[in-house]
Amino acid sequence: MVLLASGCLTGARSMAQDLAFQRWRRCSTFSTIRIQRIELDGRVVVTADGDSQRDPFLQCMDAQVREQRRSLPDLVAPEPLVVPLPR
Predict the structure, then answer these.
(1) From CA 87, how far away is CA 74, in angstroms rounded?
(2) How far is the C-alpha of 83 from the C-alpha of 18, rounded, in Å?
(3) Residue 50, CB-side half-sphere exposure with 13 Å CA sphere
(4) Which one, of 21, 26, 19, 22, lies nearest residue 57 by Cα?
(5) Is 38 among the domain residues?
(6) Strands 33-38 and 44-48
(7) What is the pLDDT of residue 11?
(8) Could you tell me the residue range of the domain that residue 32 belongs to?
(9) Is residue 5 a part of any domain in this protein?
């Protein structure tokens, strides 16, 4: 399930959220990482079941930011937040 926060009543996403969602889609292949939400500023918040895929996921997201900056050099993308699931 994808939960997206929105800043207006129409349910439209901000540009920062759209770009964050694009990054998430390209890095959503890690089986232990699940999206929780995308904040208004474009921060992707995910949950992780264990640490084994945390670093590769963060590396993927960083690579996607670099790719987006090729066409949007001034892009400010907050670091993703990885919340560990309780054991």
Answers:
(1) 40
(2) 21
(3) 6
(4) 26
(5) yes
(6) antiparallel
(7) 65
(8) 15-84
(9) no
Phi, psi of 67 (to 5 degrees): -65, -45
Q: How many domains does the chain have?
A: 1
pTM of the model: 0.84
What is the separation of C-alpha 76 from the centre of its chain, rounded to a whole number of angstroms? 13
Asked whether residue 6 is domain-assigned, the answer is no
**Strands, E assignment, 9-61:** 33-38, 44-48
What radius of gyration, in Å, describes the C-alpha atoms of the chain? 13
Residue-level pLDDT, tens digit, the chain, 87 residues: 444 444 444 467 899 999 999 999 999 999 999 999 999 999 999 999 999 999 999 999 999 999 999 999 999 999 999 999 987
What tokens does 37 get?
A: 């939400």
Q: Is residue 1 part of a domain?
A: no
Among 39, 59, 57, which residue's Cα sits nearest to residue 48?
A: 57
